[in-house]
Design goal:
Length: about 290
Protein backbone atom coordinates (compact mmCIF):
# COMPACT_ATOMS: atom_id res chain seq x y z
CA UNK A 1 0.00 0.00 0.00
CA UNK A 2 1.28 3.43 -0.97
CA UNK A 3 0.55 6.86 0.43
CA UNK A 4 -0.29 9.60 -2.05
CA UNK A 5 1.18 13.02 -1.20
CA UNK A 6 1.15 16.21 -3.30
CA UNK A 7 4.65 17.03 -4.47
CA UNK A 8 4.43 20.57 -3.07
CA UNK A 9 3.51 19.24 0.36
CA UNK A 10 6.41 16.80 0.39
CA UNK A 11 8.76 19.51 -0.84
CA UNK A 12 7.66 21.79 1.99
CA UNK A 13 8.21 19.01 4.55
CA UNK A 14 11.66 18.34 3.10
CA UNK A 15 12.58 22.01 3.42
CA UNK A 16 11.39 22.16 7.05
CA UNK A 17 13.24 18.94 7.91
CA UNK A 18 16.47 20.22 6.39
CA UNK A 19 16.17 23.45 8.37
CA UNK A 20 15.65 21.46 11.58
CA UNK A 21 18.70 19.34 10.72
CA UNK A 22 20.85 22.44 10.36
CA UNK A 23 19.43 23.91 13.58
CA UNK A 24 20.37 20.75 15.47
CA UNK A 25 23.82 20.35 13.90
CA UNK A 26 22.85 17.37 11.77
CA UNK A 27 23.84 16.82 8.11
CA UNK A 28 20.86 18.07 6.05
CA UNK A 29 21.54 15.43 3.37
CA UNK A 30 20.24 12.85 5.86
CA UNK A 31 16.73 14.08 5.00
CA UNK A 32 17.13 13.14 1.33
CA UNK A 33 18.71 9.80 2.22
CA UNK A 34 15.74 8.98 4.48
CA UNK A 35 13.30 10.05 1.76
CA UNK A 36 14.98 7.73 -0.74
CA UNK A 37 15.55 4.70 1.51
CA UNK A 38 12.41 4.78 3.65
CA UNK A 39 9.79 6.58 1.58
CA UNK A 40 10.98 5.46 -1.86
CA UNK A 41 11.32 8.98 -3.25
CA UNK A 42 13.37 9.09 -6.44
CA UNK A 43 16.46 11.20 -6.99
CA UNK A 44 14.62 12.73 -9.93
CA UNK A 45 12.01 14.22 -7.58
CA UNK A 46 14.75 15.60 -5.35
CA UNK A 47 16.28 17.32 -8.35
CA UNK A 48 13.18 18.52 -10.20
CA UNK A 49 10.74 19.34 -7.36
CA UNK A 50 7.59 18.26 -9.28
CA UNK A 51 4.20 19.41 -8.00
CA UNK A 52 2.35 16.24 -9.05
CA UNK A 53 1.21 13.56 -6.59
CA UNK A 54 3.81 11.11 -5.36
CA UNK A 55 3.35 7.61 -3.99
CA UNK A 56 5.32 7.12 -0.77
CA UNK A 57 6.05 3.83 1.00
CA UNK A 58 5.16 5.49 4.32
CA UNK A 59 2.78 8.28 5.23
CA UNK A 60 4.08 11.81 5.61
CA UNK A 61 2.98 11.68 9.25
CA UNK A 62 5.10 8.57 9.85
CA UNK A 63 8.02 10.12 8.02
CA UNK A 64 7.77 13.20 10.22
CA UNK A 65 7.49 11.05 13.38
CA UNK A 66 10.68 9.23 12.48
CA UNK A 67 12.51 12.43 11.61
CA UNK A 68 11.53 13.88 15.00
CA UNK A 69 13.14 10.83 16.61
CA UNK A 70 16.31 11.66 14.69
CA UNK A 71 16.29 15.27 15.87
CA UNK A 72 15.01 14.85 19.43
CA UNK A 73 16.32 11.40 20.43
CA UNK A 74 19.50 11.24 18.29
CA UNK A 75 18.40 7.95 16.68
CA UNK A 76 20.85 7.22 13.83
CA UNK A 77 19.23 7.70 10.46
CA UNK A 78 20.41 4.20 9.44
CA UNK A 79 18.28 2.66 12.20
CA UNK A 80 15.29 4.74 11.11
CA UNK A 81 15.62 3.52 7.52
CA UNK A 82 16.61 0.00 8.61
CA UNK A 83 19.43 -0.13 6.05
CA UNK A 84 22.90 1.25 5.42
CA UNK A 85 25.21 1.15 2.38
CA UNK A 86 28.53 -0.68 2.84
CA UNK A 87 31.03 -1.41 0.08
CA UNK A 88 29.00 -2.32 -3.01
CA UNK A 89 25.91 -3.56 -1.20
CA UNK A 90 23.21 -2.51 1.27
CA UNK A 91 22.81 -4.09 4.70
CA UNK A 92 19.86 -4.37 7.05
CA UNK A 93 20.65 -2.78 10.42
CA UNK A 94 18.77 -2.43 13.71
CA UNK A 95 19.68 -1.30 17.24
CA UNK A 96 20.96 -4.82 18.03
CA UNK A 97 23.97 -4.37 15.74
CA UNK A 98 26.66 -1.76 15.28
CA UNK A 99 26.19 0.37 12.15
CA UNK A 100 29.06 -0.64 9.82
CA UNK A 101 31.48 2.25 9.25
CA UNK A 102 33.03 3.13 5.89
CA UNK A 103 36.58 2.81 7.27
CA UNK A 104 35.94 -0.84 8.19
CA UNK A 105 35.63 -1.57 4.46
CA UNK A 106 39.42 -1.42 4.30
CA UNK A 107 39.62 -4.73 6.20
CA UNK A 108 38.26 -6.34 3.03
CA UNK A 109 40.95 -4.62 0.97
CA UNK A 110 43.60 -5.97 3.36
CA UNK A 111 42.15 -9.46 2.84
CA UNK A 112 42.25 -8.96 -0.93
CA UNK A 113 45.95 -8.13 -0.67
CA UNK A 114 46.83 -11.60 0.72
CA UNK A 115 48.45 -14.26 -1.43
CA UNK A 116 46.37 -16.77 -3.38
CA UNK A 117 47.02 -19.65 -0.98
CA UNK A 118 45.43 -17.79 1.95
CA UNK A 119 42.55 -16.52 -0.20
CA UNK A 120 41.27 -20.06 -0.83
CA UNK A 121 41.21 -21.27 2.80
CA UNK A 122 38.93 -20.90 5.82
CA UNK A 123 38.35 -17.37 7.15
CA UNK A 124 36.44 -16.23 10.23
CA UNK A 125 34.87 -12.88 11.14
CA UNK A 126 34.73 -12.72 14.95
CA UNK A 127 32.02 -10.45 16.37
CA UNK A 128 30.23 -10.24 13.03
CA UNK A 129 27.37 -7.91 14.07
CA UNK A 130 25.43 -7.08 10.89
CA UNK A 131 27.59 -9.56 8.97
CA UNK A 132 29.29 -6.77 7.01
CA UNK A 133 32.86 -8.11 7.17
CA UNK A 134 31.87 -11.74 6.61
CA UNK A 135 29.72 -10.84 3.60
CA UNK A 136 32.46 -8.57 2.26
CA UNK A 137 34.92 -11.46 2.57
CA UNK A 138 32.51 -13.83 0.83
CA UNK A 139 32.37 -11.53 -2.20
CA UNK A 140 36.08 -10.64 -2.17
CA UNK A 141 37.36 -14.20 -1.62
CA UNK A 142 35.03 -16.43 -3.66
CA UNK A 143 37.32 -19.47 -3.28
CA UNK A 144 37.42 -19.20 0.53
CA UNK A 145 35.02 -20.66 3.09
CA UNK A 146 33.72 -17.86 5.32
CA UNK A 147 32.65 -18.37 8.93
CA UNK A 148 31.16 -15.73 11.26
CA UNK A 149 30.71 -15.68 15.04
CA UNK A 150 28.73 -13.46 17.41
CA UNK A 151 27.55 -13.74 21.01
CA UNK A 152 24.27 -11.99 20.23
CA UNK A 153 21.36 -13.99 18.82
CA UNK A 154 19.80 -10.72 17.66
CA UNK A 155 22.94 -9.79 15.73
CA UNK A 156 23.16 -13.25 14.15
CA UNK A 157 19.54 -13.01 13.00
CA UNK A 158 20.30 -9.73 11.21
CA UNK A 159 23.60 -11.04 9.80
CA UNK A 160 21.88 -14.20 8.50
CA UNK A 161 19.16 -12.10 6.87
CA UNK A 162 21.80 -9.95 5.18
CA UNK A 163 23.73 -12.98 3.91
CA UNK A 164 20.54 -14.58 2.62
CA UNK A 165 19.34 -11.37 0.95
CA UNK A 166 22.70 -10.86 -0.76
CA UNK A 167 23.19 -14.56 -1.54
CA UNK A 168 26.52 -14.56 0.31
CA UNK A 169 27.75 -18.01 1.43
CA UNK A 170 28.59 -17.53 5.12
CA UNK A 171 28.37 -20.06 7.96
CA UNK A 172 27.19 -18.51 11.25
CA UNK A 173 27.85 -19.60 14.83
CA UNK A 174 26.66 -18.22 18.17
CA UNK A 175 29.24 -18.02 20.93
CA UNK A 176 32.09 -16.09 22.50
CA UNK A 177 34.95 -15.58 20.04
CA UNK A 178 36.79 -18.84 19.31
CA UNK A 179 34.61 -20.87 21.70
CA UNK A 180 32.03 -21.17 18.92
CA UNK A 181 34.38 -22.80 16.38
CA UNK A 182 36.49 -25.53 18.11
CA UNK A 183 36.23 -27.64 14.93
CA UNK A 184 38.33 -25.05 13.05
CA UNK A 185 41.44 -25.29 15.26
CA UNK A 186 44.57 -25.17 13.15
CA UNK A 187 42.58 -24.62 9.93
CA UNK A 188 42.08 -20.86 9.55
CA UNK A 189 43.86 -18.91 6.82
CA UNK A 190 42.50 -15.63 8.15
CA UNK A 191 41.12 -14.26 11.42
CA UNK A 192 39.38 -10.89 11.00
CA UNK A 193 37.63 -8.80 13.63
CA UNK A 194 36.27 -5.37 14.39
CA UNK A 195 36.04 -6.02 18.15
CA UNK A 196 34.93 -3.72 20.97
CA UNK A 197 37.92 -1.42 21.50
CA UNK A 198 36.68 1.70 23.29
CA UNK A 199 37.83 2.02 26.93
CA UNK A 200 34.87 1.69 29.32
CA UNK A 201 35.18 5.21 30.69
CA UNK A 202 35.22 6.64 27.15
CA UNK A 203 31.91 5.02 26.14
CA UNK A 204 30.02 7.66 28.15
CA UNK A 205 31.77 10.37 26.11
CA UNK A 206 30.72 9.08 22.70
CA UNK A 207 28.36 11.11 20.55
CA UNK A 208 24.72 10.52 21.58
CA UNK A 209 23.82 8.63 18.38
CA UNK A 210 26.37 5.98 19.37
CA UNK A 211 26.13 6.15 23.17
CA UNK A 212 22.34 6.02 23.37
CA UNK A 213 21.48 3.66 20.54
CA UNK A 214 24.30 1.36 19.42
CA UNK A 215 24.94 -1.85 21.40
CA UNK A 216 27.50 -1.32 24.18
CA UNK A 217 28.46 -4.99 23.85
CA UNK A 218 30.01 -4.05 20.50
CA UNK A 219 31.69 -0.89 21.82
CA UNK A 220 33.06 -1.46 25.33
CA UNK A 221 36.57 -2.91 25.21
CA UNK A 222 37.15 -2.95 28.98
CA UNK A 223 39.31 -0.69 31.14
CA UNK A 224 41.97 -0.02 28.48
CA UNK A 225 39.92 -0.93 25.42
CA UNK A 226 42.11 -3.97 24.69
CA UNK A 227 40.26 -6.68 26.62
CA UNK A 228 38.79 -8.40 23.55
CA UNK A 229 41.89 -7.79 21.45
CA UNK A 230 44.07 -9.56 24.06
CA UNK A 231 41.88 -12.64 23.74
CA UNK A 232 42.12 -12.53 19.95
CA UNK A 233 45.92 -12.18 20.15
CA UNK A 234 46.34 -15.03 22.63
CA UNK A 235 43.92 -17.55 21.16
CA UNK A 236 44.27 -17.07 17.41
CA UNK A 237 47.56 -19.03 17.10
CA UNK A 238 45.69 -22.25 18.04
CA UNK A 239 43.34 -21.68 15.11
CA UNK A 240 45.55 -20.20 12.39
CA UNK A 241 47.56 -22.25 9.93
CA UNK A 242 51.26 -21.43 9.66
CA UNK A 243 51.44 -18.21 7.63
CA UNK A 244 47.79 -17.42 8.35
CA UNK A 245 46.86 -13.75 8.72
CA UNK A 246 45.45 -12.02 11.83
CA UNK A 247 43.81 -8.64 11.31
CA UNK A 248 41.80 -6.31 13.52
CA UNK A 249 40.35 -2.83 13.51
CA UNK A 250 41.33 -0.65 16.46
CA UNK A 251 40.96 2.82 17.91
CA UNK A 252 43.41 5.58 17.08
CA UNK A 253 46.43 5.35 19.36
CA UNK A 254 46.20 1.61 20.12
CA UNK A 255 48.54 0.39 17.38
CA UNK A 256 51.79 0.21 19.33
CA UNK A 257 50.14 -1.50 22.33
CA UNK A 258 48.59 -4.15 20.05
CA UNK A 259 51.86 -4.67 18.19
CA UNK A 260 53.56 -5.23 21.56
CA UNK A 261 50.89 -7.76 22.59
CA UNK A 262 51.41 -9.66 19.32
CA UNK A 263 55.19 -9.58 19.67
CA UNK A 264 55.10 -10.71 23.32
CA UNK A 265 52.77 -13.59 22.48
CA UNK A 266 55.57 -15.09 20.45
CA UNK A 267 53.59 -16.76 17.65
CA UNK A 268 53.47 -13.91 15.14
CA UNK A 269 55.76 -12.09 12.76
CA UNK A 270 55.37 -9.39 10.07
CA UNK A 271 53.37 -7.23 12.48
CA UNK A 272 52.18 -4.10 10.69
CA UNK A 273 50.00 -1.07 11.51
CA UNK A 274 47.82 0.30 8.68
CA UNK A 275 46.16 3.70 8.27
CA UNK A 276 42.62 4.37 7.04
CA UNK A 277 41.81 6.81 4.24
CA UNK A 278 41.88 9.71 6.71
CA UNK A 279 45.48 8.85 7.63
CA UNK A 280 44.51 7.49 11.07
CA UNK A 281 46.15 4.28 12.32
CA UNK A 282 43.15 1.94 12.21
CA UNK A 283 44.21 -1.68 11.60
CA UNK A 284 46.87 -4.15 12.67
CA UNK A 285 47.88 -7.24 10.71
CA UNK A 286 50.23 -10.07 11.69
CA UNK A 287 51.05 -13.57 10.48
CA UNK A 288 51.21 -16.88 12.33
CA UNK A 289 54.73 -18.30 12.46
Amino acid sequence: MGFSVPGVQLWQWRSRAKNSAIAHGLPPNEVDWLLQELAGVSRLFLRLQPESELELKVSLQELDRLWQRRVQEFVPVQYLAGVTPWREFELHVAPGVLIPRPETELLIDLALAQDLTLKSGHWVDLGTGSGAIAIGLAFALPNATIHAVDRSAEALAIASLNAETLNAPVQFYQGNWFDAIPHLKGQLSGVVSNPPYIPTESVAELQPEVRLHEPHLALDGGADGLESIRELVNRAPDYLISGGVWMVEMMMGQGNAIAQLLSAQGSYDRIEIHKDLAGIERFVTAYRL
